[in-house]
Amino acid sequence: xxxxxxxxxxxxxxxxxxxxxxxxxxxxxxxxxxxxxxxxxxxxxxxxxxxxxxxxxxxxxxxxxxxxxxxxxxxxxxxxxxxxxxxxxxxxxxxxxxxxxxxxxxxxxxxxxxxxxxxxxxxx
Length: 124
What we know:
By secondary structure, the chain is an all-beta fold.
């Protein structure tokens, strides 16, 4: 499975961006898809995930501002980010997991495939 993330860029505080992650190979609809991010000088952290049954979880830091969705026919997962703040600045990675158990779905170790990352910079 190959993942290609796109949609990052420079945005002012309070602005919005939509990230996309296109998958090729494998059976997209069967995967749990997730977004993680890594800010400068910090460890990679969980942002959100969507399971094949459509169930969703968010990190507390993005709840109410970010929305994950998936389009199975297009093999694509999206991350709509609203109300962006400077602390959201990071490289955002999409990930796919074939056998992600619920209790581990916020751990990067649960995911088998990773995209290359797309940089989101929030600054005035």
